[in-house]
Structure formats: structure tokens, C-alpha cells
Amino acid sequence: MPHQQFIQALSHPNSNGIVILISGFLLALGIYHFLLYFQNKDKAYLYYSLYTFLVFIYTYHRAEHFILTDLSRSFIDYIHFLYDPIKWLYSTTYLLFAIYFIDFKKYFPKWHKYLLRFAKISVVSVFILTIISAVMHNKAITDYAYNFIFLPVLFLLSIYILYLIWKTDSPVKYYLLIGSGTYLLVTSYSHYLTYTGSPFRVLFYAATVFELILFALGLGKRQKIILEEKNLWQEFVIKEYEKNLKVKENLTQKLDEQVTEKSNQIDVLLKEKKVSEQKKLALAYSKQILQLRLQAVQAQMNPHFLFNSLNAIKRFIIKNEQKEAILYLTKFAKLIRLVLDNAKKQEISLKDELELMKIYLDVENIRFEKQIDFQINVPKNMDLNKIKVPPLIFQSIIENALWHGLAPKKGEKRLFLRIKHEYPYLKVEIEDNGIGRQKAIEISYQKNKILKKESMGLKITEERLNIYTQAFKNKYKMEFIDLYDENNEPTGTKVVLHIPVS
For the CA atoms of the chain, what is the radius of gyration? Predict the structure, then answer.
């Protein structure tokens, strides 16, 4: 007898408080995960909260003696009219939750686009059909479209999506598979009982709660994994940055030791009054000291550039963009190797310098979301292997063009590197179609910053060129040209650099 009373109570969830309990649970879940979305900026939380809200709207008014039911009695007929549109929307929202929860963009990028497109079409369709049904006072239009078009398509699509999810190595896939599978089986059985005259709707509510609990646990597990991966990436970035600092310190220390050693040798020669040998060695040593000074100044530039790149990787990690972080790190690692390999060299071939600049632009272009159109123009008959230039000599000029000229610009962003051999100089033109120097200064002042005419990188470049060209008869030349159109509007900046070559 008690067993029969319990079964009888469960078969009438609307009148015994079960629906009230479940509705309150759904509302609390929706609000909580909606707030989590603003904290984590993860769309999986947003669609989970929307899914729970829509299921809540679909169920809460069924409860008897519920305060929210009483408050909404005046428009309860509208909710009944919107039953199928609500089910249509929460089914679509569930689909969106699934693709962001599993990160379909990572595993199946094409299907990610297709499913987003399907969701948009679905939402637009339900709104159009609902408006038509309301205007014609015919609820059957939406009912027919939902039951005989949308549901069959969604069912087949869901089966295939679950199959795709099963194939992934996602650590949270079982939360979705078990939750969705249980929901489909139990609710199907519940609908069967309803159609056969033995309604047992409590099964629907139980399956819904079980599914949402599993999804909530899966979101928690997912966030834990993301935080652990983020911490690992941050530790890696910190270690790499510390390694770069040590490389710089060791290089600077070695340079200082070599300078001291050479200086001491000159002092010994002076004391021994070997004038002829002194002059020869002093000239040789002065050249070596000049090279060491050049390397020391160059070593100052490398950490500045490396620090900016590490910051970019950090931003990708903070945004949970793991694929971009890995791509960036791969290119960045190759760039570091080239930079450190060339740190001790006084000069490298123009071919190597241009290759280095291409990799540098690849790295920077990721930070610009690949918006920069970068072109290098070099005469076909120029022997790039024979022409020597200081390593990374173009980098600070290009960096200046990127971040002061092109970064604030909207629309097409172009950067040109043109090279000509005009004996006894190598003529280099670096031109951008950015906002111009004057506008860059104005923007900087608006942000309460002080933009000097030359950035620290440009000053270091000039110092390097000063040291490098002491061995040449001709000095370097650097000219900044502001570009304007016929209406006297700024169209960019051109830097013309003349480097003496042997």
C-alpha cells in the first residue's frame, strides 16, 4: 500500500511540490552559470544558462500553488501558445552548448561552422513561424513545423554529433554523452507512457535534472582542466623569459670580460713602451672593442623584443586560445633561435636578415590576427648573400610602423620593405599605410602617455648604426617622410635608411 501511494504521488508531480522543487533548481542553476559566464567569458556557460532558463519557463507554470505560477496566470495562455517555440529554442540552445562544451572548433572546425549556421537558421525560422502563427491565430503551423520538420532533423543531427563527440579525446565528453543519452532514453519512455494513457511525467523531470547536474559537473571539470593548462603555460612562459634574461646576462658578462682583457693588454703594451706594436694592436683592439660594444647594444634590444612576444603568448593563454598559443610559440621558438644565433655576430647577409624579418612579421601578424599585408621588394639581380648588414637592423623600424602606424588603423593594413643597391649605400625603404606620426602622437596623449619622436628601439638602432658605420668612410642616413593624399590627409609613413656597404 505505501508503495502504491508513493507511485501515485510521483505520477502527479504538478500537485505534490516536485515541479516547484525542480523549477527552483533550474532557476538557481541558470542564474549561477549566467554569472559564471561573465567571470570566465566561456560561451559554454552562456548556453548552459540559457538552456536551463528555457527549460524553467517550459516547466514552472505547471506547478500548482507556486508563487510564480500565480504571478503569471494573466499571460499563461501565451506560454501555452509558445510551448513548441520554447522547446524549439531550448533544443537549439542545447546544440550550441554541446559544440562549445566539447570545443567543436578544435576537433571539427568545418562542423563547427555548419552547426552554428544551422543554429542561426533554426532561431530565425522559429521566430518567423511564431509570428505567422500569431498573426493567423493558428498554433498548428508551428506545431507541425516543430514535430515533423525540426525534430526529425535535430534527432538525426544529434545522433551524428554524439558519434563525433565519442570519437574525440575530450576529457569531458562522457559528461555530455551520459547526460544526453540518459535524457533521450528516459524522456522517450516518459512520452511513450503518456501516449499509452499511463502518464508518468516525473520521469521527464528526473531526466532533465540528472542531465543538467552532469552538465554542471562537466563544466566544473572543464574549467579545472583549463586552469591547470593555463598554469602550466604560465610556468613555461616564465621559465622561457628567465632563460632569455640569463642568456642576456651571460652575454653581457662575457663581453665585459673581453673588453677588460683587451684593455689590460693595451695597458701592458704602453708600460712596455712598444710603440710600433702598441699602435698596431691598439688599432686591432679598438676594432674588437667596437664590435663588442655593438654586440652589447644589440643584446639590449633582443630582450625588449622577446618580452613583447612573451606578452602576446600570455594573452593567448589568458583567453584560453590554446591553438593560437601553440602556433605562436612554435614560430616564436624559431625566431628566438635565430635571434640568439645572431646576437654575437657583427653582421649577417642581407638574405638572412630578410628571412629573419619574414619570421618576425609572421609572429607579429598572429598578434594582428593576420591583418597585415607584408611585401618585400628586392631587385632580382641583387646578390643577397654578398651584402652584409647588422642583424635585426630593420626590426625596430618595422615594429614602430606596426604598433604606432598600423595598429590603430581600421581597414586594409599594408607594409612594404623595398631595397635597392645605390653604391656606396644600401637604400632601404620601410613604408606603411597607417595613421601617420602626428595622429599617433595625438592618440598617445589621449591615453595619457608620452610618445617620443623616436621609440627606444629606434634609438638603439641608431646607436648600433653609429657604431657599425665607424669602420666605413660614409655614415648612415635615416629619414622619416610623412605621406599625404591630395586632400592633405595622412596616408602613412615612409622611413628611408641608407646603410654603407663594402
Answer: 34
Joined grid coordinates for residue 142: 508551428
4's grid cell: 502504491
Q: Can you tell me the distance from the alpha carbon of 308 to that of 28, in angstroms, rounded to the nearest whole number?
A: 43
- Backbone angle region of 488, left / alpha / beta, with phi > 0 → left and psi within -120 to 50 → alpha: left
What is the third-level CATH fold of 374-502? Heat Shock Protein 90 (3.30.565)
CATH architecture of 2-226: Up-down Bundle (1.20)
Structure pTM? 0.53
Task: Report CA 240 to chain centroid distance, whole Å.
Answer: 20
Instruction: Tell me the β-bridge partners of 29.
Output: none
Q: What is the dihedral of CA 54, 58, 61, 63, to 10 degrees?
A: -110
DSSP 43-112: HHHHHHHHHHHHHHHHHGGGSTT-HHHHHTGGGHHHHHHTHHHHHHHHHHHHHHHHHHHHTHHHH-HHHH
Q: Burial-class residue 167 by CB neighbours within 10 Å (0-12, 13-18, 19+).
A: exposed
Name the segment(s) of the chain with CATH classification 3.30.565.10: 374-502
Contacts of 465 (CB under 8 A, 6+ apart): 390, 393, 476, 478, 499
Query: Tens of pLDDT along 285-326?
Result: 555 555 555 455 454 444 555 666 666 666 666 666 666 777
pLDDT tens track for 427-450: 999 999 998 888 877 766 655 444
Rounded to the nearest angstrom, the gap between the alpha carbon of residue 132 and the centroid of all alpha carbons in its chain is 42
Q: Tell me the DSSP string of 257-313.
A: HHHHHHHHHHHHHHHHT-HHHHHHHHHHHHHHHHHHHHHHHHHHHHHHHHHHHHHHH
Residues of the chain with CATH 1.20.1070: 2-226
Distances (CA, A) of 122 to 118, 132, 134, 259: 6, 15, 18, 73
172 and 222 Cβ atoms separated by less than 8 Å: yes
What are the CB-based long-range contacts (under 8 Å, 24+) for 224-231? 225/171, 225/172, 226/320, 229/322, 230/317, 230/318, 230/320
